[in-house]
Design a protein that fits this description.
The complex is a heterodimer.
Chain A: H1 4-10, H2 27-39, E1 43-48, H3 51-55, E2 68-71, H4 76-93, E3 103-109, H5 110-115, H6 118-126, E4 132-137, H7 172-177, E5 183-188, H8 192-203, E6 209-214, H9 218-221, H10 228-237, E7 244-247, E8 250-253, H11 255-258, H12 269-273, H13 284-309
Parallel strand pairs in A: 1-2, 1-3, 3-4, 4-6, 5-6
Antiparallel strand pairs in A: 5-7, 7-8
Helix pairs in contact in A: 2-8, 4-6
Chain B: H1 3-6, E1 14-19, H2 20-30, E2 35-38, H3 45-56, E3 64-67, H4 71-83, E4 88-92, H5 94-99, H6 101-109, E5 115-120, H7 134-137, E6 145-148, H8 152-166, E7 175-180, E8 188-193, H9 196-202, E9 224-225, H10 235-264, E10 273-276, E11 283-287, H11 291-304, E12 309-314, E13 316-318, H12 322-331, E14 334-339, H13 351-360, E15 369-373, H14 383-399, E16 411-412
Parallel strand pairs in B: 2-3, 2-4, 4-5, 5-7, 6-7, 11-12, 11-14, 14-15, 15-16
Antiparallel strand pairs in B: 1-8, 6-13, 10-12
Helix pairs in contact in B: 2-3, 2-8, 4-6, 8-10, 11-14
Classes of the chains: A alpha/beta, B alpha/beta.
Chain lengths: 311, 419
């Protein structure tokens, strides 16, 4: 993995420029900055309806220094599919061009991915379309005013779940795994080097690649803007958000999560949720349920890793 | 594949007896479309089947065919492919068109020259898969050009003409080419598939490596497309430009039809409308789609009986041929307008007849208009019934009175069970 020292020295090229309209402490901004450092300028980004459409700047201001298309909510994966098809058609007609080096990238929110966009995403994955689909997951519809999505965790308060969400977070990375695509990964903005490495790896893989990044949202979750990175870090440390990658069906826990296979190494869930206003109404019972859910996820992964050994 | 190998697939001029949907697929092939994206829906399915055959057997070298999971994704992927500077094609019908409606706006507002065949069918519920143009007409205000075709040959020809119009830099708008489900899509007729070299000469060249002039994907010239614009921004100006381009398209359609006739020898009137025995007619009837073909025979037979009747085939619905409609209405004493579509709550209940009436407002033309609705959901319209429609107009001309059995001012024709 790239070291912090060399990252600071060498990865100084910026593609998502200052002057954008992100809120202070925006998790999305960190996610996009580091993803683009890995992907580079031959990337064409499709942004279905989400905060990203707004934070890039209102017309005529634009923060991205690479081709960027604002897209309809449900249309992210399909529009990128079209870009990819065009790159291939252009490459056929103009073989001397750089069309084979272009990456069609979707950068969608959790609403655009786990709810309205999942049909198009599933279609693109089933076809193994040559795109990278990124879900930056802030666990609710933040752009429209913090409404619940299927990625919102159990007991979190949103403007449409004023007493906390009853259902659990939809596990979309696992759904994507079931599509048998060459690469699935989870990232956290608290681990930018891990994120960078995963995007580097994804860039060189052909076929459909899916990466979900936990990107905390200070106004949406209710914590001070300076705590974004810490919040993401606590999500990882508590085992709430598990970092792993799945290459051609083989699952590997990433460094920050690997040691947490031992439940003793995980910090108490309360440490993660206690400073977020969205969990302010969580009951003792719900806390236990949420913890059980996390433990179950880990047991499942443990079993999977064991099972894989036989392959 | 190399350019020379590509030559192997070059089509010499030939006549084939094919279904309307196969003519559509041949048109896309002749136009050398680079990206196709489609989802099957009756009665369009044989278009996508034939195109799969062409693409997968290497008869369309370099063409990418995306078999997506829904119509919404069809148009989303076509928009993506067109933004990146390729010639694109798809086909759909009825419910499929409605499902892609959001993305239809994305195409026109991005000013993308996408051509889409619509194998028109009724609107559910109840399920209906037969000819009815309500589907394409429901997209009236989307900024897409739209045309109706009446014959198998015209499907092929009109798709070629459409690329010429849409890719004109003064237009840069998408277009629907609509024809009746089953009546044209699943019946076979001889269709001339033109010589590839001639088609290449007729059409504009495929977009160059840089793409379209106004929208492109190029890391050297990074472009932000479609970001949020405040009310004080250029939103209104963009809308006006779409309308302006649409109005300018009328002349381009005429030019494309003229040039097409010169090159291939087939005439479609002035491109916007096509007249049949209208010059000396007292009684005129305006009709569109496949019903126009049989109406020619009805006109012939009434002419044989001594009635001076004539017909105009409406070829384009968008842009609406306002001047032609005015001139035609002025030249006859009575004008019937037949809709195989509905526009509930509109002045006539028929979409085109309402537009014809609107086109005559604030003019000195006082020609009475008889709106007629017939053939909905593929209901058979017999030659006798079309002659009856003409006879109703003749009677109107002779007596100066409207027919008695109108419903909300419109003649709902055919064996209508409910009054």
């Amino acid at each position: 993995m790239v070291s912090i020292k060399s990252a600071l020295e060498e990865l100084n090229e910026e593609y998502f420029l200052p002057g954008n309209s992100c809120c202070a402490g925006c998790g999305l901004e960190i996610a996009l900055r580091w993803a683009m450092k890995a992907l580079g300028p031959n990337t064409s980004l499709v942004a279905p309806a989400s905060c990203l459409n707004v934070v890039v700047g209102l017309w005529p201001k634009t923060a991205p220094s690479f081709p960027f298309i604002n897209m309809a909510f449900a249309a992210g994966a399909a529009a990128a599919t079209g870009l990819d098809a065009a790159f291939k058609a252009k490459g056929y007609k103009f073989p001397k061009g750089n069309w084979d080096k272009m990456t069609a990238l979707v950068f969608a929110g959790d609403g655009g991915t786990t709810d309205i966009g999942i049909q198009g995403l599933s279609g693109a994955a089933e076809r193994n379309t040559d795109i990278i689909y990124v879900c930056y997951d802030n666990e609710a519809y933040m752009n429209t005013g913090i409404q619940r999505s299927s990625s919102t965790p159990h007991s979190a308060i949103t403007t449409t779940t004023p007493f906390g969400k009853e259902r659990y977070k939809k596990d979309v990375p696992r759904i994507m795994e079931a599509h048998d695509i060459p690469y699935v990964a989870t990232c956290s903005i608290s681990e930018p080097l891990d994120l960078y490495e995963k995007f580097k790896k994804a860039k060189d893989i052909k076929g459909c690649r899916y990466i979900q990044i936990l990107a905390p949202c200070p106004p949406g979750w209710g914590f001070p803007a300076e705590d974004t990175v810490e919040m993401a870090r606590l999500a990882v440390k508590s085992g709430f958000w598990i970092l792993y990658e799945v290459e051609n069906g083989k699952k590997t826990l990433s460094k920050a999560s690997k040691r947490l296979l031992d439940p003793e190494k995980r910090i108490p869930l309360m440490d993660y949720i206690q400073n977020q206003k969205r969990f302010s109404k969580i009951s003792e019972k719900a806390l236990v349920e949420l913890q059980n859910r996390i433990d179950k996820q880990w047991k499942l992964i443990e079993a999977e890793l064991k099972c894989q050994e036989g392959f | 594949m190399t350019e020379s190998k590509q030559k192997d697939f070059i089509q010499p001029r030939q006549t084939k007896v094919v279904k309307g949907n196969v003519a559509t697929a041949y048109a896309a092939k002749s136009a050398r479309v680079q990206v196709i994206s489609a989802y099957p829906i009756t009665p369009q399915t044989t278009v996508v089947e034939k195109l799969s055959e062409f693409a997968d057997s290497g008869m369309m070298p370099g063409t990418q065919y995306i078999k997506v999971e829904s119509e919404h994704s069809v148009m989303a992927s076509i928009v993506g492919a067109s933004i990146a500077g390729t010639r694109t094609f798809t086909a759909t019908a009825g419910q499929g068109l409605f499902y892609m409606y959001e993305m239809i706006h994305w195409a026109s507002s991005s000013r993308l020259p996408i051509v889409t065949a619509i194998v028109s069918r009724g609107v559910a519920p109840p399920w209906n898969i037969w000819a009815d143009f309500t589907d394409v007409i429901a997209c009236r205000d989307t900024g897409w050009l739209s045309s109706f075709v009446a014959t198998h040959q015209e499907i092929y020809d009109e798709i070629l003409m459409s690329y010429k119009v849409c890719e004109d830099f003064d237009v840069l708008l998408p277009k629907f080419v609509a024809y009746g489900g089953f009546i044209l899509s699943h019946t076979s007729k001889p269709v001339i598939i033109e010589d590839q070299d001639l088609v290449d000469e007729y059409l504009p060249p495929l977009p160059d490596e840089k793409g379209w002039p106004h929208i492109f994907i190029d890391p050297e010239r990074p472009m932000m497309h479609g970001n949020l614009i405040m009310p004080s921004g250029f939103y209104s100006e963009f809308r006006l430009k779409i309308h302006d381009a649409m109005m300018r398209a009328a002349e381009k359609i005429k030019e494309a039809a003229k040039e097409f006739e010169k090159m291939f020898g087939r005439s479609y009137g002035n491109g916007l409308v096509q007249k049949y025995h209208l010059d000396d007619a007292d009684v005129g009837i305006m009709i569109y789609g496949d019903l126009a073909l049989q109406m020619e025979q009805a006109v012939d037979e009434l002419r044989d009986e001594g009635y001076k009747v004539g017909m105009v085939k409406l070829r384009h619905f968008r842009p609406f041929p306002i001047e032609d409609v005015q001139e035609i209405a002025k030249s006859v004493r009575v004008l019937g307008v037949v809709d195989r579509a509905t526009a509930f709550g509109s002045p006539t209940g028929g979409p085109v007849s309402s537009e014809v009436k609107a086109a005559l407002y604030n003019t000195d033309i006082k020609t009475p208009i008889l709106p007629i609705i017939s053939g909905l959901g593929g209901r058979e319209v017999s030659l006798e019934e079309q002659k009856d429609q003409l006879k109703a107009l003749v009677k109107m001309y002779e007596t100066g009175e409207l027919p008695e059995d109108l419903i909300h001012g419109t003649l709902w024709h055919g064996k209508l069970e409910v009054k």
